[in-house]
Design a protein that fits this description.
The protein is an alpha/beta fold. The protein has three domains: 125 residues, 3-Layer(bba) Sandwich (Glucose Oxidase, domain 1); 122 residues, PtsI, HPr-binding domain (Enzyme I, Chain A, domain 2); 267 residues, TIM Barrel (Alpha-Beta Barrel). Helix content is 47%, strand content 15%. It is built from 21 helices and 17 strands. Strands 9, 10, 11, 12, 13, 14, 15, 16 and 17 form a nine-stranded mixed β-sheet that branches. An eight-stranded mixed β-sheet has the order 1-8-7-3-4-5-6-2. The protein is globular, with a radius of gyration of 25 Å. The structure holds phosphoenolpyruvate and magnesium ion. Magnesium ion binds next to α18. Phosphoenolpyruvate binds next to α18.
């Protein structure tokens, strides 16, 4: 037996047979020169491969869209848009014209160039796009070399998929129930593959060092997605322990789902509010279905990033009304737009920043674009007549920023003749965490964003797997800071809305800080409520 350890990316237990997935990009493909008069025929091969891949992407979007939700399906539709990008099409044509080589080599040259370009970009968002381009490259190659089915299409039942990393086109096969667990050598918790694994409820352990060298297809594997432990060819004793743990997990999940609409309190009577984080209408539907006590954080970035021009008040209002419909009278903290130099918003023409996460982010940027800020305040105030909404300010550094937003909201609410609503501050910077008493003069409530707070306190990029050992949101340094925030907030309500709130091992320590309101991923709500009841 070999025991491996990685990061627990998607909870649950799985036992099955390993399938080590190797990539089509790692194999050699036909390479030959073509004459000038073969150009048209060779370009037709590229063009028809492109059409087939587009069809595959539409099919994947449909399949995932009906199994899950539209937002996940959008990943494939965004890839389809990239594939028909006129610059990419031009590049393919020109490379064929210059190099006189077969289609496989042309797409190899072009796609590798595009992947490099996106990977080398200082923008995190563009870096993430590189994976999508690489995925398109794989799909094109598969069609061109005539590999009809994706290797993962026909996995036998109870397969544990073992891979260096997975692309969105790979993960669509998770909709077939044959894959019971996933092990990845390199992947960030925010990678598409790990998000989809969580959405599908498939246990997943990532960042397992030496995985590909240590596991062979056919090995028996046990995956513990709660602790990140992996057993290769386990002994009878380990299998026995696994069965007991799995039975307990299944029992607890069933109980958690049954009790999801009940409130949660610890055994000594401490009531805990469990709300959900959301960034789309689908998330809100899932939050309500999962028994969330409200929306502790609604991220509005998706709406503003998708818009082609500066949205109008009626447009944003319409979007909010559509999203909030399932909520009824439950409260929602609508966060003002939190973007910065790492995200491209064409209608703002933001300058390049060397250090976007330390740059003009969140409320800092909104003060420089007053029209964008006012649109949000007006739309939020207008929906406050119908829904229980509050405004949440991102990336606060100084109490004066909260004061300034409060004054603006009061002025606009008077102009619109709509009663003023509550204003809250995100605690994400060390400065805000250290200035809680002054913030509370102007803020009606606080939401602690431990993702950013940990990043800034530990000086460790939250997106980087290279410094993940420094990004310790459950470290006593962070827990001590949370306690001081809770104490200094006094009567002002505090909610914890970073990923820390979903870590069951940290739950007891979190509640000991005095924080008793959490906001987490919608589908984790029943499990966390049940975990509270067991404390
Ligand atoms: C956070 O920083 O913890 C947070 C909840 O906000 P986001 O993840 O959207 O930055
Ligand atoms: Mg944040």
């Amino acid at each position: 037996m070999i025991q491996l350890k990685g990061k627990a990316f998607s909870s649950g237990f799985a036992r099955g047979i390993a399938y080590v997935y190797s990539d089509i990009l790692e194999s050699n493909h036909a390479a030959y020169n073509i004459s000038k008069d073969q150009h048209d025929a060779e370009y037709d091969r590229i063009d028809s491969a492109k059409e087939e891949v587009r069809q595959q992407l539409f099919d994947s979007a449909k399949r995932v869209g009906s199994a899950l939700n539209k937002n996940v399906a959008d990943i494939f539709l965004a890839q389809e848009t990239m594939l028909v990008d006129p610059q990419l099409v031009d590049d393919l044509k020109q490379t064929l014209g210059q190099k006189h080589v077969n289609a496989e080599q042309v797409i190899g040259t072009v796609f590798r160039r595009w992947i490099r370009k996106f990977r080398d970009s200082p923008s995190t968002m563009l870096n993430e796009r590189a994976d999508d381009i690489e995925d398109l490259y794989r799909r094109m190659l598969r069609v061109l070399v005539g590999v009809e089915a994706h290797k993962l299409e026909k996995l036998p039942e109870n397969t544990i998929l073992v891979a260096r990393s997975l692309m969105p086109s790979d993960t669509v096969f998770l909709t077939r129930k044959s894959c019971s667990g996933i092990l990845l050598e390199i992947a960030a918790p925010t990678a598409h593959s790990t998000i989809l694994a969580r959405e599908f409820g498939v246990p997943c352990v990532g960042q397992v060092r030496g995985l590909i060298l240590k596991v062979n297809t056919g090995d028996e594997i046990l995956v513990d997605g709660n602790t990140g432990k992996v057993f290769v060819n386990p002994t009878e004793v380990v299998i026995e322990t696994y069965h007991t743990a799995r039975k307990k997990h299944v029992r607890q999940s069933a109980k958690a789902i049954k009790n999801r609409f009940k409130s949660a309190a610890t055994t000594n009577g401490q009531e805990v509010t469990v709300m959900a984080n959301a960034s789309s209408s689908g998330d809100i539907i899932r939050a309500v279905d999962s028994g969330a006590d409200g929306i502790g954080l609604f991220r509005t970035e998706r709406f503003f990033l998708a818009a082609k021009a500066l949205p109008t008040v009626p447009e944003f209002r319409k979007y909010l009304l559509r999203c909030l419909k399932p909520l009824g009278d439950k409260s929602v903290n609508l966060r003002l737009l939190d973007i910065g130099g790492d995200k491209i918003i064409p209608y703002l023409s933001l300058p390049f920043e060397l250090n976007p996460f330390l740059g003009r982010r969140g409320v800092r940027l909104l003060f420089d674009f007053p029209a964008l800020l006012k649109i949000q305040i007006k739309a939020i105030l207008s929906v406050s007549k119908k829904y229980n909404v509050r405004i949440l300010i991102p990336m606060v550094t100084f109490a004066e920023e909260v004061k300034k937003i409060r004054v603006m909201c009061e002025t606009i609410s008077k102009q619109m003749k709509i009663p003023m609503i509550q204003i809250g501050a995100m605690i994400e910077t060390p400065a805000a965490a250290l200035a809680v008493p002054s913030l509370c003069k102007y803020a009606d409530f606080l939401c602690i964003g431990t993702n950013d707070l940990t990043q800034y306190v530990m000086a460790a990029d939250r997106e980087s797997a290279l410094v993940s050992k420094y990004f310790r949101d459950d470290h006593s340094i962070i827990l001590g800071l949370l306690e001081s925030i809770a104490v200094n907030a006094g009567e002002t309500p505090v909610t914890l809305c970073g990923e820390l709130a979903v870590k069951r091992d940290a739950l007891s320590s979190i509640l000991k800080t005095g924080i008793c309101s959490l906001s987490i991923a919608p589908l984790s709500t029943p499990g966390i409520k049940e975990a509270v009841r067991r404390l």
